[in-house]
Amino acid sequence: MPTVDIYNADGKVVGSMDLNENVFGVAVRPDVMHEVVVNYLANQRQGTQSTKTRTEVRGGGIKPWRQKGTGRARQGSIRAPQWVGGGVALGPKPRDYRYTLNKKVRRLALKSALSSKVEENELIVLDSFSCDEIKTKKVVELLKNLNVNEKALIVLPENDKNTVLSARNIKGVATTYVGAINTYEVLKYTKCIILKDAVTKLEEVYA
């Protein structure tokens, strides 16, 4: 069972915590994490790119020159794909890139990502943290006290608007909460700062 230190907002160790090995101590599966990340990125695509075919390009209704006798190759329309300004052959059209993965696969990928953070000592458990007002300086001080200079993801037990807005302007820092956490974000950021209450909720949901 993995054990980690618990820090306060001043960066001091105030205790330790045993993590559930079914969530934070599973065998890391890079193949499953890769599959889920590719799925996540595909689902983010808008799929609105579009090109015009020869039937959609304006003009070209008349044959540019007669079929025979000119010495040139026969042409039927100046909007054929080989012409400058012509239609695009086999170009992209609006489509939906979304596809689904099994729930068990998504859960395993998230647990693998969290376990990899524990193995690499990139997981920091915080006893408590909240912002009474929108104050970026407070989050900056927290990161400084925890000696976090890398890209960091702050995981909250629930959506806290003040904390989210306070951290929004800090480059390389993002916030999420237990109900919205995903494998891509956990892997994208080097450090994972997770509140103690969020750890408990994750263990309740994913254990």
Please provide a written account of the structure.
By secondary structure, the chain is of the alpha/beta class. The protein folds into two domains: 3-45 and 98-206, Ribosomal Protein L4, Chain: A; 46-96, no CATH class. It is built from seven helices and six strands. Helix 2 (30-44) packs across helix 3 (103-119) and helix 4 (136-145) crosses helix 5. The chain is elongated and about 90 Å long. GO terms for molecular function: rRNA binding; structural constituent of ribosome. Belongs to the universal ribosomal protein uL4 family. Residues 47-76 are annotated as: Disordered.
Question: What CATH first level of the largest domain would be assigned?
Answer: Alpha Beta
Assign a percent range to the helix content.
25-40%
Count, helices: 7
Report the average pLDDT across residues.
93
- How many separate domains make up the residues? 2
Family: Belongs to the universal ribosomal protein uL4 family.
GO molecular function: rRNA binding; structural constituent of ribosome
Region (Disordered): 47-76
Pfam family, one: Ribosomal_L4
